[in-house]
């Protein structure tokens, strides 16, 4: 068995890895969960006997692409993203995702290839074939910092562009 991680009740991940000690083998029909016990180093006494948490078992996948859920559009149980084309137009593209939802991102198993650039903000305002002016995260950060500086300096005409 591989080493496992522990997701605490507040959603944070315990910083030490552990190993599975026992598994019941019975699946709870209501939740789809399995009870198990794992042993973790606990020198700081953060973990308490009888506590409940989620054990995260690693699952290695090849050829998947991680995309933010906010970058997707869902229509009739299908997921789509807008892929940037060479001419700065966007192409509405269906994707297939791995059935694991952490509320933040999806693991795309088909529909995208390494190197594809997708729109990650404002997808609700786009249409297939629409021309856009893409910016990188670094450019977005620079624009934000400039807007803060403009606001600080009283240049309100440029601070909110």
UniProtKB/TrEMBL annotation:
Similarity-based family: Belongs to the membrane fusion protein (MFP) (TC 8.A.1) family.
GO biological process: response to antibiotic
SUPFAM superfamilies, A to Z: HlyD-like secretion proteins
Boundaries of every Multidrug resistance protein MdtA-like beta-barrel domain copy: 4-57
Multidrug resistance protein MdtA-like C-terminal permuted SH3 domain mapped to chain residues: 63-124
Stored Pfam families: Beta-barrel_RND, RND-MFP_C
Recorded GO CC terms: plasma membrane
Any GO MF annotation of the entry: transmembrane transporter activity
Upper taxonomic lineage: Bacteria, Pseudomonadati, Bacteroidota, Bacteroidia, Bacteroidales
Protein name, entry field: Membrane fusion protein of RND family multidrug efflux pump
Organism: Bacteroides reticulotermitis JCM 10512
């Amino acid at each position: 068995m591989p080493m496992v991680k522990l997701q605490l009740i507040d959603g944070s991940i315990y910083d030490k890895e552990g190993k599975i000690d026992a598994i019941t083998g019975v699946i709870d029909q209501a939740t789809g969960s399995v009870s198990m016990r794992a042993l973790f180093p606990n020198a700081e006494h953060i973990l308490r006997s009888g506590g409940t948490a989620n054990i995260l078992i690693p699952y290695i996948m090849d050829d998947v692409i991680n995309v933010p859920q906010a970058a997707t559009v869902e229509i009739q149980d299908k997921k789509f993203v807008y892929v940037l084309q060479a001419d700065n137009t966007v192409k509405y593209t269906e994707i297939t995702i791995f059935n694991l939802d952490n509320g933040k991102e999806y693991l795309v198993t088909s529909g995208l290839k390494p190197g594809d650039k997708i729109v990650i903000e404002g997808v609700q305002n786009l249409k297939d074939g629409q021309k856009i002016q893409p910016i990188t995260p670094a450019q977005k950060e620079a624009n934000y910092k400039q807007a803060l500086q403009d606001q600080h300096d009283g240049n309100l005409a440029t601070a909110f562009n």
